[in-house]
Structures
1.
Amino acid sequence: MEWHEELHERADECVGRLDERLWAVATRLHERPEPSFEEHAAAELLTGELAADGFEVETGTAGMPTAFVARTGSGRPCVALLLEYDAVPGLGHASGHNLVAAAGLGAALAAKDVLGDSRGSLLAVGAPAEERGGGKQALAEAGIFDDVDAVLMVHPGVHSWSWAPLTARVELKVTFHGRAAHPTGDPEHGVDALAALIQAFVALSALRQRLPAGSHVQGIVTDGGEATTVVPDRAEGRFGLRALTADALDRLVEDVTTCAQGAALATGAKVDVERLGRGYAHFRDNPVLSERFTEHLAACGIHAGPPEPGVFLGSSDIGDVSLRVPAIHPFVAIAAAEYPDHTREFAEAAASPRGRAAMLASAAALARTAIDLRTHPSLVSRAWDYFRAQERNGY
């Protein structure tokens, strides 16, 4: 397959001209971090930049005030670039979403400039609330990706990896109900709900020893009683569950529920287990696209390799999109491994010279990949063929 090197060079030149403009956007977002569903200034800034370059902008997409879709062109092939811009409460842009937004913006502007009025369309999709709320899920359910052929984004990290081992995730609320009593004056009439919750933690500790790779359970106590002079009649825990696939996650939910029910039986308490929200699906990488992006990233000066075996970096609502459309979510390093995201050091890296260089290289590599998809129908077909094979194999 021949690639249009001239188009790639033009994309690189365009991103180079956009350098100061993109960094100004990344910096403004970094200086004014906004949490999930409150990214009003970020959405206004990004839509203004896109509209200024001729994109048709729709705001309030899928009923979310801070979501948007900016479009240029029409029909297929259709490529969507995802922009994230929510911050981590208390830590600012400690996931580097200011760089995600700036890279996606740069790729959209450069690809539009290079492609002109060629066949197909390009979307820049503003996806709020990745940290908490799942904005991409709402966008997918609203049909935003129904006529899209590829979804592209890149995320800063502490590794440069060609794809992201992101697991399925859900949170459970486990509530034990007992009977209050005086702990010394009338202990035989009490049913200690907190003891039942603690017993559940013990059972989960044994469960962890046999969990497969990629599965994990992390719990906290959110209610353990009000006073030491009363046997607690209610205790509550929250448990974050992760697994390699949605099916594996469902099995893990069953295992955790069994542990809770066993603890209730052992202590005489009653228990309720409730899923909180929809959770996130696992991420399904499309190697046809991620390998092409990785080649472009190398041409832009950053060499990404496969993920380290056995290392799972978390979960994201990009997973729900990747089960509908061929997608990529590579990582590009901006900080040392000892300073992962959701730390103050990583937030500082998101406004550093290294962060700037990673953002610019990512923008150029994304633009190149979008251009390839728009100008080579066979690449689109190969991506969809691989996607459907993954579906048939149950991944």
2.
Amino acid sequence: MPRRTATMLASTLVLIALLCAGVLIKVPYSEMSPGPTVNTLGDAGGEPVLRISGHKTYPTSGHLNMTTVRVTGADYNMNVAEALYGWLAHDNIVVPHETLYPDGKTEEQSSQENAEEFSQSQESAKVAALKELDIPVASRVVVASVVKDSPAEGTLHAGDVIKAVDGTAVKAPQDVAKLVTRHKPGQEAAFTIVPAKEAQAAEKAGKEPEGTEEVTVTTKKSDEGDRAIVGIQAGTDHTFPFEVDIKLADVGGPSAGLMFALGIVDKLTPGSLTGGAFVAGTGTIDDDGRVGPIGGIQMKLVGARQAGAKYFLTPEGNCATAASDTPAGLTLIKVKTIDDATKSLAKVRAGDTAGLPSCSTG
């Protein structure tokens, strides 16, 4: 066999071996890529994303698109070839597997956590939107969950309304922990509550619950130190003056909060919030309308631009990363609160785009 032919054959065999190794060798990485965007003003799966009843609504136009990121599953093991391709591709990001699934979290656990965060983001979006419009929302502190085998199990239940601890009125979830930790482990904490069933019945009847109960729970020492705990997670439950329903399947996490809130504001106010423009965005939102950063901002920018967005509402905490690699034709708008967002959209409507708060890499 001629030397040149032998060399070519050997090179080919080496290349085949490397390709096989690239496919067979698994690496601890996961991939993120742009996911679909959904107009919160429109329909998804044949149903309106936002449905409001019991209050006057107005026609809308344009887009207020929430954005998503696709990720490989917790049980999926990338091979070397896939990782190399992902690192070289502009529209994908390869990250350590533990970045997406810390502490060995399974795909089921991650999906459950994302579903819970998504549900909470919907609740906060409703509250933030109505507060932005000066529409009163009644709120109350409740038992969000009870830890299994904790002192509170069997005495306090999810949905119980917490009115006071040791006779001191409770106004926010964090008040509960502060009052409980005034005790030493082993001491009793007295809770003034409205049981969940009574609270729910009163809410359905459109009334305030009548009467309270006094229960005591013996505190124990926390696993982290000498702090007294009873084993509950306190949260906030809201009573809305009319029905606001958010429906969107196969989406999880808290990052759509801002866009849901803006969609609600748009439907409840005359005129178009966007002036017909294609606006996309992302960001968590709390009950007071503060916008928080999210993960996968670069993928969301790509997905938004591919969908046709011209403007992107960007949480302040994501601005530097977003500004470092912004798709051509997409204008970033920095937002810290829902009020920032509505004021910026007013500038978009008026064509005053030079006055928009922008993101910078600094």
3.
Amino acid sequence: MVHGIRTRDGRRLTVEEYGDPDASPVVLLHDTPGCRFGVVPPHVVTAHPHIRFIAYDRPGYGDSDRLPGRRVADAARDVAELAGALGLGRFSVLGVSGGAPHALACAALLPSRVRRAAVLASPAPPDARDLRWFDGMAASRVEECTRALTDPLDFAERLAARAAGIRRDPAQLLVALRDGLTDSDRRILAAPAVAEMLLRTYREALRGSSYGWLDDGLALLSSWGFDPAAVTRPVLLWHGGQDTFSPVGHFTWLADRIPRARPVLRQDAGHFGALAALPDVLDWLCVPPASS
């Protein structure tokens, strides 16, 4: 079921629900670039009939209106509004890669609403003290982040051109993603179900513009607007030891600072190993409240 929700400032958020409407709610925070289609593969959804999945397009993606200059912390406000519109009580959040800091924002800023948070393959904030932020990162990723920080206009123009190419052929991004990936990541991306989900995701995310992608990139590389150390809810922090998008130093930094973090490091996994971890992660998220 797809909803168009109006926020208090008049923006439209596109929200989609699936699974059991009477079950434990889990709000999904998608990757960058991404949309509501791109968090949990269909076969994993089918294997978890006890969950009410709620996914939405962050501002600027798909049919959600843009919010120029947004920060990572703004996701908490949007999630609170969609939760109110859908009549949710307490809920869990799940964020993958670029969506992971947004899930942390919800856990930090909505402590009375968020039960648990799963944070997979997350980068650390760019102003993280005592972290060499680029160490272990793929050269292509370093170049992209550096351009966003030093020449945001050029960064925006390049993303717009890439988005136009992806609209013509979404497989372009899958090909580009393989640069710097581990063999295990390449095997995961080669799986037909995963490739189909990602192609559908990129097509929908960027069909109108590149603004969501641009605003995500700038938000993730600016002050997030909250301190991860302020998260008081239980957090499952999952990471692949061979991740070259968000290197393992980012995981260690977050694990050392989030008070109730449950760190899980898979030394043999890369960035997209998060997809293989989803079944166990979802089971942890939906442990009955008495066990939290």
